[in-house]
Design a protein that fits this description.
Strand content: 5-15%
Distance between the termini: 28 Å
Largest sheet: 5 strands, mixed
Number of helices: 31
Shape: globular
Strand order of the largest sheet: 4-5-6-14-13
Length: 752
Amino acid sequence: MNARTRKLKDELLAIEPRICVERARLVTDGYKANEALDTVLRRAKAFEKILTEMSVYIHPGELIVGNQASRPRAAPIFPEYGVRWIEKELDDVPRRLTDRFLISEEDKEQLRNIFEYWTPDRTTDDRVIALMPEELRKAEEMGAVDAIWLRQNGPGHFSPDFAKVLSRGLSGIVTEAREELERLDIVEPDYVSRKVFLESVIIALNAAITFARRFSKLAKDLADAEREAPRRAELEKIAQICYWVPANPARTFYEAIQSVWFIQLILQILDNGHSISPGRFDQYLYPFYERDLREGRMTRDEALELVECFWIKLNWINKLRSWHSTQYTAGYPMFQNLVVGGQTPDGRDATNELSYICIEATSNLALPQPSFSARYHGNCPEEFLQKCCELIKRGIGFPAFYNDEVIIPSLLNRGISREDAYDYCVVGCPEPSVHGKWAYRCNGGPFVIALKIFEMALNNGADPRTGYQLCPGKGDLTTFKSFQDVIEAWNTQRDYYVGLHVLYDHINDEVFKELVPDPFASALVADCIRRGKSIIEGGAIYDLVGGQTVGLANLANSLAAIKKLVFEDGLITGVQLIHALATNFEDEETRPKGEEIRQMLLNAPKYGNDDDYVDLLAKQVFLEYLQKYEKYKNPRYGKGPIGGTFSPSTATVAANVPFGKKVGATPDGRKDGEELADGISPQYGTDVEGPTAVIKSVGKLDNILVSGGNLLNLKFTPSAFEGDAGTRNLAAFIKTFCQLKGFHVQFNVVSS
């Protein structure tokens, strides 16, 4: 880092996050003033009010400008998505164990007054709850499915068309919307809805232009008052840039990166969903970088400084989540995924000098955002892989690696065009997407907790904790006569709870469509303007959604233990095992004792050790699970987008820990309340044959079918990768993982 970015980083890390009430007040006033309007037009008017009246400021020394809230790292409030949980938690938020936010008593009172307007018929959280049938509420209470984060926060999980903004400017997109408006035929049955949508797009885009030009005026005013000539020149340049972009096409790298920041920022101000991602940053910005370097307008060091300033601004973005959701995603994450490398739409290697600058900026700053990712393929340059490995060795968890050799075929399998599949980006955690063409939530849907469902399968469909029996079972462990009986019991419960997950997703989508259509985001996703409908109505070219599955390794391990110990070796009976589980392995009066049974279970074959006995069971149940989802449709099916189906994921983030608290003792030897495995990673402590065995187990799964994202976390001590030899070994390991057809891998290189 140079002196500027070091200072900006230090100042960032010194800030205590706060809650900002500005947005809540402005959006509420905007809604009140336009109650007679159609919802999408009403939201556009509210967006206009927010962007024209919220506070704007320029932080001392910064080159990229624009703020989400009244101060850096403050979290705005989105009352249209839910207020009841905020009211309950407002006093506790400053005292949380993690993800704390400061708030004054005055601001608390102001929020409580604002919340009076947001009656249950006006918020997504309340409306979804009202539409949930009793069985779905019970399933969430038990911990079998969970979408609280979704109904409280909005969809998110997409990457807008930054390249279009850079080439046409928002004014060009306004012109496009006006032309579509003029082409409308008043006798068409959808005339009114299309007209209202296009009018809302124009309002929202013009508000964004106004927002940027507010910074232009502020920079000019600051320049006029600035005594130091170098900073005055910087502020004058900022004023010129913010007047020009994002209204107009970018002409320089500086203009382009500022334009990208404005779009990223405004989406975070208007949309409460996270995982809104910059996508293939090194691709759409490279032409500006290359031309500026060639024509002498900028040096490489100046470009690096701008990239580092952009990285720092991404860390200004923050979000308040309920404590329930915070436990699943602790650490103030925004999942703004930025990916480098990969291939061009025609299949050539896409690595360029800007890819390396992004790696360098990530290494220099070592900040949580962006969620930095790298695409790998068979012709990936060795230098690029080596630089990525050196970054991994820093111990910051970046970059995550995505395997083109699996992901591109997985997207082709879902109907994505060849050109778009080669041009995929990543959003959120491990979700492949196509920037500017894919709808919300290419993955981010309800959680499905596979091990909880299996626990009920072993108990005749009943939850031992609550006593609920939503789906009558096929008996229990005391009645099963064969291992096939266990599989059939699992299949019965799986099918039922997958159905509940799909229902939950549909309810959320219908409520989002009714209450929170987003004209600004929709204007940046094709073909919303041409079709005259928002993303949530089916305006995007591609629309596949999914959910996150939790506990797959535990499920496979549990099945393997039952198969071997009960039905093959006969070391314990189903009666003994179900009693041991019910007593958390603590009954010392039985023979064998509870803990002795647990040791048998722990020593049964475990996924992650390249053992076909359990790995092929994992492959079987995972494949059948994926195939089950493929038959379901989302509410946009048949309404324009390609897809319209479900595409599941294993992106658990940290949800495997709190969900484990709702699952009793299980046949893999796990005790009541202990964490579950994350993603498709082995259960903690069970992968005893080393990391190469882990990736061989993962490679046996049908990873190509998990187009919503397949997540593998691996942990190493720093000594494993010491020196140049360690870097080469890590690179070889990544190559092998990709040759084995793994989907995604991320490394935690940390000491104890």
